[in-house]
Amino acid sequence: MLKNNVSIELNKQYLKIVYSRSMAAKPSISNCIVSNIASLTDEQISAEIVNVLHREKISSKTVSVCLPRDFVTVRNIHLPSQDQNEISQMIELHIGRVVPYKKDEIVFGYKTSGLDEMGYSRVILAIVQIDVLRRQAKILEKAGLSVENISLSSYESLQWVYRNCQNNIGRSDIYLLLDVDSSCTDFIIFSQHGLLFTRSISMGMDSLRTKDSFGFVKLVGEMKQSIIVFHNEEVSSKLVSIFITGCRDISAISDTISEEMELPVKIVPCPCLKDFSKAEKMNVPSDVSLTAVSELSLELGKKSFNFILPELQVRKQLKEKTRDLFIFAACFVYLFTIICLVFVGRIYVKQNYLNKLESRYVSIDKEIRDLVEKSSQVEKLKGFLDERKSDFIIINRIQRLVPAEITIDYIGIDSKNSITLKGQALQLSDVFKFVTSLEKSTFFKDIQQKSTRKRKLRDKEVTDFELIFNSN
Q: Cα separation of 137 and 65, whole Å?
């Protein structure tokens, strides 16, 4: 089955879109698009995304978001447990002590990367302010896209190195990975067990054109300082080698970095360069890194760092419940239809048999009366089944009009097809929209809004409502 995957990265300067297709276990990148958005407003960025998707004929409505490393705060912590549930609970309890933000102002994700010398779990905790995620989600929603998951760029770059250099990674050694972008460099220390340390260095390819440039000197100094910080936090062996990925121009700096750091360097071309025979086919600046966003598109839904906005999580759960309810209703209707067909088939056979008896024994009054009585009972049963079927038709018509923002708790239908509907909505305006949809429907009439009431549900406000109307 052909599956399409779209991943997007929005940093301070560029919009990056990678579109891949996969048949079974063979994903491949179909297109890469980079647009300069440094001077654009959020509305203009949304419009640019719409234009790109339309121009490139990309029809997917869901996307994966790659969050740039410089948007995220990363902390290395050690926890005295190896149980994932306990680790999750410890992080929930102590997250407020790690960063100077309130708990409701941040979203976080974490990954374990083996055990330290004390047997504690090494945990990489990534924290991002919720306003950053909401801004990106809002831009994509205005472009008509739904966010499927949000991942950390450092993790995606590392996954690309694992995918292509597994034979060059020793079991007990540690390595350095540099993902060089136009304005910043993602500094990553890792081992075979996972990511150990990461930070964003504000020196990119724009500042690294020559060996003697200030940017290059600063980059090397920041790298050495970061290694010292890492060794102060982690008791580990020395670095064995350096992997460099990112923009197309990295080959120009690899030898100099190897000389300055006194370590061998291996270049790992980014996924899009590997999938395209000629880089000129992509209209991508030579100093822009597409490694992380491309790997996210190729991962095909694998679990990674995932920053989940509370409202997106609620919306996703509502969609899943609605889908499950729809599947259940469809299965129930299908089963009910089969049962009805079986009964109708039996009734049809019996009716034929009765007709034959009537033709053969028309002169036998007593027996005919018995047959007529049986026939009357059958007709009553048919009428009962027709009434049941009518109720399900009404429920089906209501279900088609219920929007995603509305949750139905109770449906009551009396013998006169008078309908009572109770439920919840995220906002009062959603109730009005639902009432408008019912009024426009040709199947319902006399819609009355009996009551509405707002109340708190956990950390949000919902509106309870009750409607009364009739079926045509």
A: 9
- pLDDT per residue over 397-453, tens digit each? 888 888 888 888 888 888 777 889 899 988 888 888 888 888 888 888 888 888 888
Nearest alpha carbon to residue 109 among 83, 81, 88: 88
Verify that 218 and 286 share a domain, yes or no.
Answer: yes
pTM of the model: 0.64
- Of 261, 284, 308, the residue that ends a domain is 308
Q: Same domain for 259 and 342?
A: no
Which residue range is the domain that position 460 belongs to?
Answer: 402-472
What is the number of domains present in the chain? 3
Indicate the residue among 281, 308, 335 that finishes a domain: 308
Domain of residue 431, CATH code = 3.30.70.2830
What mean pLDDT value characterizes the chain? 83
- Other Cβ atoms within 10 Å of 98 Cβ, number: 15
Residue bearing tokens 């991962």:
299
Q: Does residue 229 sit in the same domain as residue 341? A: no
- How many angstroms separate the CA atoms of 311 and 141, rounded? 13
Bridging pattern class, strands 460-471 and 418-425: antiparallel
CA atoms within 13 A on the CB side of 455: 7
Query: Within this chain, do residues 412 and 435 fall inside the same structural domain, yes or no?
Result: yes
Distance CA 104, CA 460 (A): 12
How are strands ordered across the β-sheet holding 265-267?
194-201, 185-191, 174-180, 239-246, 265-267
| Residue 7 burial (10 A CB sphere; 0-12, 13-18, 19+) | buried
pLDDT tens-digit map of 20-72 = 877 656 777 888 889 999 889 999 999 999 998 888 888 888 888 999 998 99
Based on the fold, state whether residues 282 and 327 are members of the same structural domain. no
Which residue reads 């959020």 in tokens? 42
Looking at residue 470, its amino acid is: N
Q: For residue 206, count CB atoms less than 10 angstroms from its CB and return exposed for 0-12, middle for 13-18, buried for 19 or more.
A: middle
Our CA dihedral for 98, 101, 105, 108, rounded to 10 degrees, sits at: -20
